[in-house]
Write a structure and sequence with these properties.
189 residues; mainly alpha; 62% helix
Length: 189
């Protein structure tokens, strides 16, 4: 049995990191731990999709400005997160967090989430019939950022956003490379 010594928070953090690392290694296929063997291949995509979606959303609701649309959406559903004590405490730390974590990392996490979800839906099989759906949102996201640069749409162009969209879009292919099946040869419609 694991006992926590709350006077030494580094031990708790180490334990959490160890468990997360075990789980993450299982998701990408580097470990076959008996606890997690029931998870099917496509569940790895789905779970990683929800984790990255959750992390990107947490960054937004904890540290970003209150004028974002997400807060009006939450209020519509009866969730007043702006007045929560967690939000009030976390917003104090926002100025100490690097700019790229607050403003660009969520974009990359959401691109990762989308592609992982779509790969999960198609069970890791990429073919001519579904490649359009896999790359649709990353192409739209990067195109909208470039349109901001040229002034075609309202917004502020940020090359770091483009970088995170790109990294978030290719990461699922790199992380799950052992489980993705590319099926482009000899396809007939």
């Amino acid at each position: 049995m694991l006992h926590f010594n709350f006077r030494k928070p580094s031990k708790i953090f180490d334990w959490i990191c160890f468990k997360f690392t075990l789980f993450w290694k299982y998701l990408i296929g580097n470990i076959h731990h008996s606890k997690y063997t029931m998870i099917k291949k496509n569940s790895r995509f789905i779970i990683s999709s929800f984790i990255s979606l959750f992390l990107g959303t947490v960054i937004y609701i904890l540290f970003r400005t209150s004028s974002l649309k997400v807060f009006s959406w939450l209020k519509y559903f009866g969730i007043d997160f702006l007045n929560s004590s967690l939000r009030k405490e976390s917003i104090k730390w926002a100025e100490n967090i690097p700019h790229w974590i607050l403003f660009s990392l969520p974009d990359g996490l959401w691109s990762f989430s989308y592609i992982s979800l779509i790969l999960g839906i198609w069970r890791g099989n990429i073919s001519q019939s579904n490649i359009f759906w896999i790359i649709l949102i990353p192409i739209v996201s990067i195109s909208l950022e470039i349109a901001q640069y040229f002034g075609f749409i309202q917004g502020t162009f940020d090359i770091i956003d483009v970088f995170f969209y790109f990294i978030g879009s290719i990461s699922p292919f790199l992380i799950f490379r052992k489980t993705i099946i590319f099926n482009f040869i000899n396809q007939r419609k």
